[in-house]
Amino acid sequence: MRTALKRNPFLSYLFAGALLTGCGGSFPFAHQIEVEQGNILEPERVERIQEGMTREEVRQLLGSPLLEHPFHAERWDYIYTNHGGGNDPVRQRLTIHFENDTVARITEEPDRAR
Questions:
Q1: Is the CB of residue 77 less than 8 Å from the CB of residue 63?
Q2: Handedness of CA 4, 6, 11, 15 (dihedral sign)
Q3: Which residues on neighbouring strands pair with residue 112, listed in sequence order?
Q4: What torsion do the CA atoms of 36, 42, 46, 48 make, to the nearest 10 degrees?
Q5: Which CATH number characterizes residue 103's domain?
Q6: What pLDDT was estimated at residue 41?
Q7: What pLDDT is attached to residue 103?
Q8: Which residues, 6+ apart, have CB-to-CB distance to 4 below 8 Å?
Q9: Residue 93: which domain range?
Q10: Rounded to two decimals, what is the model's pTM?
Q11: 3-class SS at 2?
Q12: What are the start-end ranges of the E strands in the chain?
C-alpha cells in the first residue's frame, strides 16, 4: 500500500516545509510581536534622580522597581527589555543604591543588544 505522501509529491514538500518552519525559522511575512517588559526608563525622569532623594521621591519618578532584593534592601533595580518586532533586542538597567533611605549612588547600563 502506498501512503498519501508517496502518491502526491506536493504533499511531501508541503509537509517537509511545515516541519522546517517549526524548527526555529520564521515564516516569511509573518508579523513579529514586540514584547516590552519591565520599567520603561524615560531619560527625562532618570536625569531627575539625584543623590539625597528619598525612596518615595524615586518611586514617584520611576515607579516601583522591577527588583527589590530581599537580602539587599538598600538596592533597587529598574530593568527594561524589548524583544521582537523585527528589531534588535534592547536591554536597559538602572540600579539605585540607598544609604539611610536616601539615594547614595546610581549606576546605569546603556541600551545594548543581546
A1: no
A2: positive
A3: 91
A4: -150
A5: 3.30.1450
A6: 84
A7: 96
A8: 11
A9: 32-112
A10: 0.64
A11: coil
A12: 35-38, 67-68, 75-83, 90-99, 102-112
